[in-house]
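G., the chain you wanted modeled:
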Amino acid sequence: MPEIYYGTNGPISFKTYYNGVAIDPTSTPVVTIYKGTETSGTALTVNNTDVDEGSFFCFVPVNSTTNYEYFKVKIEYTINGTSFVDWKTYNVSRPYANVAEIVEASGFGTDRSDRNYKSYEEVMAAERWARFKINAYTGQKFEYKSKQVEVIGDGTDVLLLPERIESISKIWQNDVLIYDAASVGGNQYEFEITPTNYALRFVKDPGLDIFASYPYDTTIPEPAFFKGGNTYKVLGMFGWLNVPSEVYDSAIRLSNDFFYQDSVWKEKYVKRMQTGDWNVEISTQAFTGTGNSMVDRILEPLIVNRMVII
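Predicted structure as tokens:
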């Protein structure tokens, strides 16, 4: 799925095809944007690139990218009397380092005449490549979005979550709302996020025992506990409020790697190259981590180890 960065207005580009060949349509295409599940859209201004046949671009309203969701674009055009309708869905994503930051840190040129020029689309592709590598290596995503997760209570005052959480909005127990952050003084219980950000716990007065019985029986919890076997749904902001500095730095380093020729060989699992006067052998570590040993060391503290019990 194509992407657009959070809080930006694009641009988004597209081509018009006829019989498999990109050519200009009879008239300017009509482009309509639909946010989320909207059924009525907003028309966008279409611009011709004046570079290649059938190449166009649009800028989208910034309010279409102010949440980490998606939007759809409907593209309508006519060529030689034949009408075409194309749909494209864009994912609104959070970059770990934006295009301007990568360009500045890497010394890339911003003018086509610059020897080290990189286009906006090229740098964006490099960041996406770096982001996917970071996600795969650390076992987590450093996004920030509102979502709902579902977990099973185990009879303790702590509820383990499958994803990192930053803030709590609502909690349901077996589909019964038991906590609403918007309800001032109307909640029977209060909850807090543990220091790891991977669990919730009840806020209780000090000195309360964990269980009322001895030996400890997880099926007989105190009232302020997540009951064993009960289903809890948690709505909140999950992920990272801010991209960690280690991830930001790694994204810039890996974005640079994207433009190096050796990345082409590593992506094809080529370990050794020999041609004429020189011989190159790539370390086996290049195939197990991000492909950059420095980045691997930087990201090591952020690796998530997940245990699955069946």
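The chain is about 15% helix and 30% strand.

Shout if anything looks off.
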